[in-house]
Specification:
Elements (H helix, E strand, L loop, with lengths): L10 H21 L3 H24 L5 H20 L1
Amino acid sequence: MVLACFSFLPREAAMSAQASDWKRLYRLLQSERDPQKQKDLCERARRLIQERSIALAEANLRNAAEEDDLRAALRELWKLQNRQ
């Protein structure tokens, strides 16, 4: 299960922590200028974004704003990776 690493937290807290993780990493990526670090951060951010999408689906939660943010972040990651 995607949230297994947060098994000690209540479900809502785990979902919230996961939501902030991808956003924090994505913001860090936007300020990184080293191409190798950008590549590594892109891969990590993509994985966290995908895990968050799956977690929302598995929990049957509809959050249109966050889903839009996830899609937009994936598009930006794709653009960034294709520029490198």
